[in-house]
Amino acid sequence: MKKCLTLSLAFLMSSFPGTVLAQSTPSPETLALSQTFNDPALATCAEQMYTTLMTYQITEAYNVLPLWYVAQYTATLSADDPELFQQTFAALPGLNHLIVLRTAPDQKNISALWIERQSTDRLAVKQVETVTIANYNQVQQRTQSCVLLAQRLYHQNVPERFRSPFLSAGLSLMIPGAGHFYRNTPEGLVWGSVFLLSYLSMSFLALSEQTPLENSQWGALILSVSLIDALSAYFLTEQSEAS
After folding, report:
1. 10 Å Cβ neighbour count for 61?
2. Distance in angstroms between the alpha carbons of the first and the last residue of the chain
3. Phi and psi dihedrals of 39, rounded to 5?
4. CB atoms < 10 A from the CB of 24, how many?
5. Can you tell me whether residue 217 is helix, strand or coil?
6. pLDDT tens per residue, range 95-116
7. How confident is the model at residue 149 (pLDDT cuts 50, 70, 90)?
């Protein structure tokens, strides 16, 4: 029994880094969220939009530039410049997509413009989203508006990736917690970590000289946890795809 556990642990430690490296593929195009040139009050709104987009794992589809980096290289730009967008792209070499937050003169709504570089000297507005705000002076309402804008932009520009419940269960049978990591959600990360740490802890206790259980009992316990891991990965993945 201990020999089997040792071999299982060796397979786990050798397979898990490879799985992580296989999933870390670089994004082909670069995206930046610009500073709010026409209204400094939208700075916190821009930060909230950036955080929301990162929460939605937008980095799977785009290489997103940090806000501080964008601010550093666009600090000298003027909101009154008629070629503001062109100057922004020029200030950020290699930039393919730009999201700009704007407010209406009457401050009744907030807009987000998704601008795309189509060629070296040609830009195009790919998408415009606008939300109405009841009281612009309230920070909470501005923040909620930017969260809504980020959600709309994400779902329009990042296709949903299908995740197979069968593959999720199969991964968990091979590597503890891998099926939950495959789901690529905050909840999946938590569950995957729980099952992985549980498996490692029980394996360590089973291999130790002073163990409170017999080898057969440890084997049954580890098998039960593995089955729960695989079944929960299957049904949670199926539930996510259905929703």
Report:
1. 17
2. 42
3. -160, 105
4. 7
5. helix
6. 999 988 888 778 888 888 889 9
7. confident
